[in-house]
Amino acid sequence: MKKDTHPNYHNIKVEMTDGTVFETRSTWGQEGETLKLDIDPISHPAWIGGGHKMVDRDGRVGRFNKKFEGFLGETKKPVQKNEDGSKSSLGEPKEE
After folding, report:
1. What gap in Å lies between CA 39 and CA 55, rounded to an integer?
2. What's the CA gap between 49 and 43, in Å, rounded?
3. Tens of pLDDT along 5-52?
4. All residues at 6 or more sequence positions from 65 whose CB lies less than 8 Å from its CB, including other chains
5. Strand 10-15 and strand 80-81: pairing?
6. Partners of 22 in the beta sheet?
7. Taking the model in full, what pTM does it have?
8. Would you say 46 and 59 are in contact if contact means Cβ atoms under 8 Å apart?
9. Cβ-proximal residues to 75 (8 Å cutoff; 6+ apart), any chain
């Protein structure tokens, strides 16, 4: 087996954007150094779900749905009336 094939795996500190610090093991930097993050799950829109909405206004999905509308027959779920007169889209009687 070859010697020195594995990187130096050591303890480092990671500082999040809000200032919190935690310790982990990594091959980054040297023993005891602090990695300061610019983007993390606390501040990035991909994790917090803010600032971006995906809207498909008759784009690819809309064109696909329009093109294949009625392809397999009726695409809407059958609506049945229950004994009490209410409608059920699953075709099952309403339980009380």
Report:
1. 25
2. 10
3. 888 999 999 999 999 999 999 999 999 999 999 888 888 777 777 665
4. none
5. unpaired
6. 14
7. 0.46
8. no
9. 69
